[in-house]
Design goal:
2 domains; 173 residues; 4-stranded mixed sheet; F-box domain-containing protein; two-stranded antiparallel sheet; F-box-like_dom_sf; F-box_dom; single chain; Monooxygenase; alpha/beta
Length: 173
């Protein structure tokens, strides 16, 4: 057995032979969870998980980088897992160009995530511990107001946008 060479199966697909640019473009369309599962296909796709364009747009929603925690008052909740967020920011955070905050009910998770990004951005080069470049290339921040989460129809939605000047989302560049 040890003398025999390992042979690739003849009917194996050629997905591993795709160029990095194509894989990177495919990864940019996937969610974070889908990227993670796709990165376990082969070594080339694992390498593509960390390519810059795959993380050009980072979407943060209700369950991104969270874990479930039981609260006696309101039941199961998703709370930001600071270890996951720190690992995400240190490995791919320097590739973020656009941050998208989707409507969510738990603003504390968004607040904590923004605190982590701002800490890394403020500590650029201040010490030898923090990773350089996190948040430095962010050019656009998109935030959608969750005012219309309870609206049943579009006519109700238009009347529920209080304090936003009629805008549902803001884009800061």
């Amino acid at each position: 057995m040890e003398d025999e060479e390992y042979r690739e199966p003849e009917n194996q697909s050629q997905w591993t032979l795709l160029p990095d640019l194509v894989i990177e473009k495919i990864f940019s369309y996937l969610t974070m969870r889908e990227r993670y599962y796709a990165s376990m296909v082969c070594r080339r796709w694992h390498h593509a998980f960390y390519l810059p364009y795959a993380w050009y747009i980072f979407s943060f929603d209700e369950t991104t980088l969270t874990r479930r925690r039981f609260n006696y008052y309101s039941g199961w909740q998703f709370t930001l897992d600071h270890l996951r967020a720190q690992l995400c920011l240190t490995t791919v955070g320097r590739n973020f160009r656009v941050l998208v905050f989707k409507p969510m009910t738990n603003f504390y998770n968004m607040y904590e995530f923004m605190n982590m990004i701002s800490y890394y951005a403020e500590q650029q080069g201040a010490d030898r511990v923090t990773v350089k470049g996190i948040g430095a290339k962010v050019k656009t921040l998109r935030y959608t107001f969750p005012c219309n989460m309870l609206a049943r129809s579009e006519s109700q939605q238009a009347s529920r946008l209080y304090g936003t000047g009629g805008e549902e989302s803001f884009i800061f560049q």
